[in-house]
Design a protein that fits this description.
Length: 530
């Protein structure tokens, strides 16, 4: 059965294993270096002692006279102050004259095979097996006044003595490594635990999944989103933000840049005084775009980690508002038709109550004839049921305001252009008719009729709306279709014609505005069918 370990345990075990291996290698290398250094130091010490002993005049005389008792008396004093394992004196025939550890070796040959160079007058350091075991030793020649080699001084440290020194050193190294390992165990456990807490107890796979999900969510969000760190450097930005701000660079090239280098805001949305508090739905300008922006602080354990800025195009809100207003107008049209129907029903009920049956019949016939005529015309000429409902509503609404909506006899619409849907067509016609009625109401009564022409008999859909209002002022004619531009004095205006122009442009059509003699304006729209 496969055991699944958590990230904390894996990290702890990896840190412990790596630390143990590293400390073991360091300990082995240190022991090797200390052992080599100890051999060099003891060899040098033995050599110094051997040379100094070989230069003692009394020793030279006693060796020359082969006085073993004199040699022993002299060397016993020196041996008492030396840390060497042994001191040996031999003659020029490599025979023992003195041995500090074994007096029974006197007269026996010095073994080890390293006496030849010494007899030639050289001082050596070697590791050999002698009479009492393997040792690190140094030998120096004893010279007479004629510089003739008359004897040998050997000072040595037994291998067992060196091993005991190394064992003491090794014990210290192992003790230090064990203490370091214990400290590393504690450090590794605390580090892995702290990392686990900072990762909100999530596994790396879970974090990777969250990162991918966050990236997908950011790209799926319609609003622009930018996150910055406490130094106001960009740490993430989604595609919608780059598109709204018209940033051509890839997101990777924007990371780490200060937000003020990327966005010029009016008013200053990123000043320190503004950043002290969160804000929602603030209207401002980012670069060239008018946006509605929000800013929220990122807090972790009462510590500021940065900010998240989200924003959307202000025009989108205005467009939505206009579309909602259009729906409201449809509802108003239905209310007007219902109101007219109630008035008609109340009048008919009054005539019947007064038993004026002939007048009631004539009233019903008159009302039915007029309503049926316009109903038959609209239903026969236009194939869209939604458009028929809109035109009937607009007809009733205009009549309630004292204005006749007059349809051109050549009106017809059998099929919508491919690039224009039914909702967009109703938005176009509804906004044009509303503007025409409002413009006509600006003139004194009696009001002239508003004329409508819709025809798709050629290769394009033609829509014309003519009014007898005051006309289009010269100062707004060039900017008439821009958002916010209006000739009306009050109310929520400046969006209808902008919507009309947007729908027509999307359908690859064109708009012409001309004067309607003697006064008024004519809006002509040409939308290709293909």
């Amino acid at each position: 059965m496969r055991i699944k370990l958590s990230f904390q345990i894996k990290l702890f075990l990896c840190l412990v294993a790596f630390s143990s291996l590293l400390l073991t290698l360091i300990g082995a290398y240190t022991y090797y270096q200390l052992d080599a250094q100890l051999h060099r130091d003891l060899g040098a010490r033995a050599q110094v002692q051997a040379r100094e002993i070989a230069l003692i005049p009394t020793l030279v005389d006693t060796v020359k006279n082969n006085d073993t008792d004199g040699i022993a008396a002299l060397m016993n004093k020196i041996r008492a102050s030396s840390d060497a394992s042994y001191i040996v004196i031999g003659d020029n025939h490599t025979m023992h004259l003195y041995h500090s550890e074994h007096s029974n070796l006197l007269g026996t040959p010095m073994i080890g095979g390293d006496n030849k160079e010494v007899l030639e007058g050289k001082s050596i350091i070697s590791i050999r097996k002698g009479g009492i075991g393997v040792s690190l030793r140094s030998k120096a020649p004893i010279m007479d006044e004629n510089n003739q080699v008359i004897g040998i001084v050997s000072v040595g440290y037994l291998k067992s003595h060196i091993d005991s020194l190394n064992a003491r050193t090794l014990t210290q190294i192992v003790g230090s490594i064990v203490l370091l390992l214990i400290a590393l165990f504690i450090f590794s456990w605390l580090l892995s635990k702290n990392l686990k807490r900072q990762m909100f107890s999530l596994e790396p796979k879970e974090i990777a999944l969250l990162v991918r999900q966050q990236k997908a969510l950011l790209e799926a969000i319609y609003e622009g989103v930018i996150a910055v760190d406490p130094q106001l450097r960009i740490i993430t930005i989604n595609h919608a933000a780059r598109e709204l701000l018209d940033l051509r660079q890839p997101a990777s090239s924007l990371m780490g840049r200060e937000i003020s280098e990327v966005i010029q805001s009016q008013p200053d949305f990123f000043s320190m005084t503004q950043l002290e508090q969160d804000t929602h739905d603030e209207v401002c300008r980012f670069n060239h775009a008018r946006v509605i922006a929000s800013r929220v602080r990122i807090m972790q354990e009462e510590e500021l980690q940065g900010w998240v800025i989200s924003f959307r195009d202000k025009n989108d809100i205005n467009t939505l508002s206009s579309q909602l207003s259009q729906v409201k107008r449809y509802a108003d049209n239905l209310r007007i038709m219902r109101h007219e129907q109630l008035n008609w029903t109340a009048t008919l009920a009054g005539l019947l109550h007064m038993q004026r049956y002939d007048e009631a019949v004539r009233y019903v016939e008159a009302q039915s004839e007029g309503a049926q005529e316009i109903l038959d015309f609209i239903s026969q000429r236009f194939s869209s049921a939604a458009l028929c409902g809109l035109l009937l509503g607009k007809y009733a609404s205009a009549r309630e305001k004292g204005i006749e909506l007059r349809f051109d006899p050549a009106c017809q619409l059998r099929q919508l252009p491919a690039s224009l849907n039914e909702t967009e067509l109703m938005s176009i016609i509804g906004n044009l008719l509303d503007n025409a009625v409002d413009a006509t109401l600006h003139c004194s009564a009696p009001h002239d009729a508003v004329e409508l022409y819709i025809n798709d008999s050629s290769n394009e859909l033609v829509i014309e709306v003519a009014d007898r209002g005051p006309g289009i002022a010269a100062q707004v004619r060039d900017t008439l279709f821009e958002q916010g531009v209006t000739t009306k004095d009050k109310g929520d205006h400046g969006i209808g014609l902008h919507l009309v122009a947007s729908h027509v442009a999307q359908a690859h059509g064109s708009i012409e505005v001309s004067d309607n003699d003697p006064h008024g304006a004519i809006f002509s729209l040409f939308i290709p069918k293909a």
